Every structure is written in structure tokens, then in C-alpha cells.
Amino acid sequence: MVEPETLEQRIRSAMPDVELVRIEDLTGTKDHYQAVVVSPSFAGMTRVEQHQSVYRALGELMAGPVHALALQTYTPEAWKKKNG
Amino acid sequence: MDDQLRQRIEEILGSHKIVLFMKGTKSFPQCGFSATVVEVLKRVNADFHTVNILQDADLRQGMKDYASWPTFPQLYVDGRFVGGCDIVRDMYEGGELQPIVDKALGRA
Fold this sequence. Notes:
Structural class of chain B: alpha+beta
Radius of gyration of chain A: 12 Å
Radius of gyration of chain B: 13 Å
CATH superfamily of chain A: BolA-like
Shape of chain B: globular
Number of domains of chain A: 1
CATH class of chain B: Alpha Beta
Helix content of chain A: 25-40%
CATH topology of chain A: GMP Synthetase, Chain A, domain 3
Number of strands of chain A: 3
Order of helices and strands of chain B: HEHEHEEHH
Largest interface: A-B, 14 and 13 residues
Oligomer: heterodimer
Number of strands of chain B: 4
């Protein structure tokens, strides 16, 4: 189990230019999460690389406390487009 | 990761055009994310090999390091890591998966 705030803090401290982090507990058990991360640093990266940078930020949390993380990553431009 | 394990991974990737490292098997996935990718691969008419990482602790840890990717499933096409469930589903919905699969299987 891990608090959603912990996930957000880890992402924000490892990726300082992040513009939006939205963490959602999918099952109410604090181990299956969905995350949306918006950052200009994703520009030019493949989706695999974008997700890898979030996984790196979460480090050992991904090796145990978080069982599943559905991840969506966007550049600020892509995020704006998606949300009209 | 030790050389022997890396060699084993590369042998698996080299022997099959499309490989899915997953929880469970093609006919009996043991996780919803793995089941989703199996379903997507069937829809693009892919001929694919699966490896059940639940039955192989070495490979389960090794693939995490190999791909810098902490979760399963992991899809590889032509030896290259394509992504996990979210990315594969997005690529399918965006029409990007079919051409990669067709190319790998010589159907393009």
C-alpha cells in the first residue's frame, strides 16, 4: 500500500517541470493506480520513454507497494488537444 | 543482469517475431492487462509467442531490467520493446499496431 500523495510527490520531485499529476486509486486498496502525467520534457520521447521516465521517478515503489499502474503521459500540447 | 540470463532473453526474442511476456498463458491469462494484450494481438491477426513469467522468477526479474519496465505484460516485435498494456491498446486504437505487426510477419 502506498498513499496517492506519495506517488505524486515522487513524480514531482524527480520531474520538476511536470505541469499536472493526477493520481487515481482504482480499487480503493491503494495498490492499483491510474496516473496522468503532463510534462514538456516528454516532447520528442516515444511513449515507452515517457513511461520509463515516470517509472524511474517511482523507483522501488513499482517493485512492491504498487501492483498496477495504468499510465497516461502527455506533453502540455497533447493534453490541451485531448481536452479541447 | 548476468550474461547467461541476457543471452536467454535474446534467444527468445530472436526465435520469434512477436513475443509477449505475460502473466499466465495465451489461453488462460492470469491478469486483466495481459488478457487485454492477448485480445488486441488476436484482433490484428498476429501470430505470437507467449512466455508465462509467473512460472519463471529469473525471467520475471530479468525482463524488468532488460526493458527498464517494471510491469507485465511486455510486448516485443522484431526484438524491440513496444510497450505494456496501455501503450499497446493506444497503438491498436490509433491504427499504429497493425502495420508494425504486418511488417514483422512479412505481410506488409
